[in-house]
Amino acid sequence: MVARAGDVLADLIARPLAPGLYLVATPIGNLADISLRALSVLARAELIAAEDTRHSKKLLSHFGIGGELTPYHEHNAAKERPRLLARLGAGQSVALISDAGTPLISDPGYKLVREALDAGFMVISIPGPSAALAALTSVGLPTDTFLFAGFLPPKSGPRRARLEELKTVPATLVFFESAPRLAKSLADMADLLGPRDAAIAKELTKLHERVTRGTLGRLAEDLADAESLKGEFVVVVAPPATDETGASDEKIVEQLGRALKVESFRDAVRSVAEVLQVSRARVYELGLKLTGKRE
Ligand code: SAM
Known about the structure:
With 295 residues, the chain is α/β, with parallel strands linked by helices. The chain has three domains: 2-128, Tetrapyrrole methylase, N-terminal domain (Cobalt-precorrin-4 Transmethylase, domain 1, 3-Layer(aba) Sandwich), CATH 3.40.1010.10; 132-237, Tetrapyrrole methylase, C-terminal domain (Methyltransferase, Cobalt-precorrin-4 Transmethylase, Domain 2), CATH 3.30.950; 249-291. It has helices spanning 2-14, 36-44, 53-62, 77-89, 110-118, 131-138, 156-166, 182-193, 216-224, 249-260, 265-276, 280-290; strands at 20-24, 47-50, 69-71, 93-97, 123-126, 146-151, 172-178, 197-202, 210-215, 232-237. The strands form two sheets. Strands 3-2-4-1-5 form a five-stranded parallel beta sheet, sandwiched between helices. It has a five-stranded mixed beta sheet with strand order 6-7-10-8-9, with helices on both faces. The structure holds S-adenosylmethionine. S-adenosylmethionine binds at residues 28-29, 98, 100-102, 105-107, 130-132, 176-178, 201, 203-206, 232-234. S-adenosylmethionine (SAM) is lined by residues 28-29, 98, 100-102, 105-107, 130-132, 176-178, 201, 203-206, 232-234.
């Protein structure tokens, strides 16, 4: 069966690679997480633009992939972008990779993608690992609506202002955080977001992978005493309690009126409660009034 995987990869590699910009997700720790398609694109691309060429060379040589590598990172992006676009203009295939995970997710590439699309080049995502989704899906918090908030600002003032903005968002929040800032960020989250359930996903897919669950206050408290932390972390925070989302009765009734045109009473109550992150009991009560079943 495993030999078949080798055949599939050989088949992919034997095909020509169409010109275009390929956004290739690479592992976030465990090298075995690379996809066959990612390997086949990296093996065939005429140019690989990498955030850190030395780092990516290790990944590529692990899989026996050579090829031309060029650096593309936040400090040289403005200068390098026209060169990459020129290669695309010459009908070549260019792969973009970051140090780990999915390019553009708290990593360079957004402007390159935008300009490539504006110039009419093909842009293809080769999906794969991303710390944000790996964390979100493994910590037992709601996954139906989430907001990826990337890194919080490093300084406390702007960080707290950003948390104020996020406070009422009716969604699970996903943050990246670095080891030296984790304790301070969690303390600010506990202070501003309130007693919500949360989780810290550490070193996903690696040897010291670990998920710690608890309220924000508890997690912040535990970390306050921790010695110097090491590793990579994602913090996932449950949505606010229903009354923090600020959904008014009018808003609920308006959505319910729309939902009732296409759904049964029961389904409409459930979907409106989910979308607005309010309790089903509240939507049910308002629904009874709306439909005249109760004065
Ligand atoms: N583009 C990457 C992705 O899609 O996962 C993220 C790049 S961002 C510069 C790096 C941050 O991602 C780290 O500081 C950490 O918050 C998170 N991260 C990356 N790898 C991780 C891992 N194996 N476990 C936990 N968090 C990780």
